[in-house]
Amino acid sequence: MLTAEPDAIALPAQPRALLGHMRNIVRRHPTMLVGGALLVAMVLMAILAPYLFTYDPRVLNPIHRLRPPEAGHWFGTDMFGRDVYSRTIYGARISLVVGFSVSILATSFGMVIGLMSGYNRVLDAIIMRIMDGLMSIPAILLAIALMALMSASVKNVIIAITIPEIPRVVRLVRALVLSLREQPFVEAASAMGAGFLRTMFRHIMPNTLAPLIVQGTYIMASAVIIEAYLSFLGAGTPPDVPSWGNIMAEGRTYVQIGFWIILFPGICLALTVLGINLLGDGLRDTLDPRIARRM
Amino acid sequence: MQTYIIRRILATIPVMLIVALFVFTLLRIAPGDPAAVIAGDYAQPQDIERIRHQLGLDQPIATQLVIWLGRIAHGDLGVSIFSNLPVSKLIRQRMEPTLALSLTTMIFAVVLAVPMGVLAAWKAGTWIDRLVMVFAVLGFSFPVFWLGFLLIYGFSVQLAWLPVQGYKSISDGLIPFLRHITLPTLTLGLVYMALIARITRASVLEVLSEDYIRTAHSKGLNPRNVLWGHALKNAAVPVVTIIGVGVALLIGGVVVTESVFAIPGLGRLTVDAILHRDYPVIQGIILIFSAAYVLVNLVVDLLYTVLDPRIRY
């Protein structure tokens, strides 16, 4: 493990060395490869949805309703005769868009707030009290409450899931800034006459990125699950948009006679979240060997 | 020591104030006039005016906040728009099933997950360790309600061993209570177990690499004694922390699980409140759950000093 450390901070050298470096990472963290492959597969599935032998996910076919999985309908049909396979494939789009958006928004906002908090004592006192308060409201409840204020749309679901995730990012960034500020290289930068903004964005911020990327993957995993919860509880994406949470929410009353309606979207969701989590674990081990040894 | 305890207890006050402030803002920015919403569709303007006065909505916003905080301090959480009952009464009625489910889940998860994590760390690198880690990663990946339906389908529909849905209070007898609570507990417990097992393993693994463990080994102590006598107590702090932090996960899970198993608890109250846009009830539930979460973590913080005498404040 010790020999790996110079590797992890090596500058990108010749392409060949980089390739060897990548191969090394993959060999050492096969789970990351599996996780990444799962996520890529899901993204491809979402993009290529119209070409994957799907029907229109919204087309009703009452004669063929509640059919178990068969040749024409691989995942069966739901209570309105809609093809569960097509709905599941198209559903990937919503879940992944929500996952990616929340992850990017929460880490961006969290980073900005965290940097401010880590550098100014007065701001820090105010921001951290607010964050403590927000963090003591369980994430799903906060998201539910926010959705109760807004109309059901994918955009609003993204906002409602992002807000509860921000405090955790702020805490992480703040802690990093506080410890980085004391590092000799930051002192050296200041001594050489670097101004506040330069120190902040050229020296401190880049060093927060690796842990932030790891945090970002975990946020994405939790966003995909919370979207499903919100839709399931009736506070999520509107019913006309098929999302995994939605499809399962609609199928819940048919568990005893149409189990497949819930089964397949759930498997897809679990595989996606599993992929993201494995990727996150792998990234954490690669980007931060110090934490890796502890986990 | 005493000053620390008092300081820690006092520190919860600003946190709860922020939560209360947020919840207060929630009703203010809710679409529509709260008085009009409470008065209903067929209200006359003077009815709305009367309710506005009753609620103190004609006062300046700061005064409203103070009055509202005063009411909360007296346990008055307002009146439900939908059922016209006091929110505190609604919450009291629904409290028992939620508490019961949370407690059974916590006991179930801790009793199984802690030994799992310890075993995985003790046998690090073996197939037992791998199995526990696979379980810990998988446990995080399933949506709680999906697992619930899977269990219902397997154990209730196909095997018909356990009731599909519903809840029986412990006062209806222990056996009916257990029969109804088993599947919800399993459903809700899995995520929590995964979390605790993972942290336990990491924590024990870290302690096992400490110098004093090597010393204990080298002075010829039986490996079993090293684990029980030296390692476990020192690994306890992170585990207790995560049990506390995980309560947030548990609360979110309770809401969903109750919905799956038709348990008439706070979770169901939440879902009904969302469907009816019953803001006072949503407010009350958030306050109660957040208070519970803050309280649990207060207890956890105070436990540190007992578990690890090295921690002094």
Give a verbal description of the structure.
The complex is a heterodimer of chains A (295) and B (313). Chain A contains 12 helices and no strands. Chain A is mainly alpha-helical. Chain A has a domain at 92-294: MetI-like (MetI-like fold). In chain A, helix 5 crosses helix 7 and helix 6 (139-149) packs across helix 7. Chain B has 313 residues and is mainly α. Chain B has 2 domains: 2-73, no CATH class; 87-312, MetI-like fold (Orthogonal Bundle), CATH 1.10.3720. Chain B is built from 12 helices and no strands. Chain B has helices spanning 2-29, 34-39, 45-55, 61-73, 87-122, 127-141, 144-158, 174-208, 211-218, 223-261, 266-275, 279-307. In chain B, helix 5 (87-122) runs antiparallel to helix 10 and helix 11 packs antiparallel against helix 12 (279-307). At the A-B interface, helix 5, helix 6, helix 9 and helix 11 of A face helix 1, helix 6, helix 7, helix 10 and helix 11 of B.
Q: Keywords, please?
A:
heterodimer; A: 295 residues; mainly alpha; MetI-like fold; 12 helices; disordered N terminus; disordered C terminus; B: 313 residues; 2 domains; globular
Class inferred from helices and paired strands of chain A: mainly alpha
Head-to-tail CA distance between termini of chain A: 14 Å
Known CATH architecture of the largest domain in chain B? Orthogonal Bundle
> How do the helices and strands follow one another from N- to C-terminus of chain B?
HHHHHHHHHHHH
The CATH superfamily name of the largest domain in chain B is MetI-like
Secondary-structure element order of chain A, N to C: HHHHHHHHHHHH
Strand content of chain A: under 5%
Q: Pairing-aware structural class of the strands and helices of chain B?
A: mainly alpha
How much of the polypeptide of chain B forms β-strand, as a percent range? under 5%
Largest inter-chain contact set: A-B, 44 and 52 residues
Radius of gyration of chain B: 24 Å
- Reported CATH architecture of the domain at 92-294 in chain A: Orthogonal Bundle
Radius of gyration of chain A: 22 Å
Question: CATH superfamily of the domain at 92-294 in chain A, called what?
Answer: MetI-like
Number of strands of chain A: 0
How much helical structure, as a percent, in the residues of chain A? over 70%
Question: Could you say which overall geometry of chain B the principal axes of the C-alpha atoms support?
Answer: globular
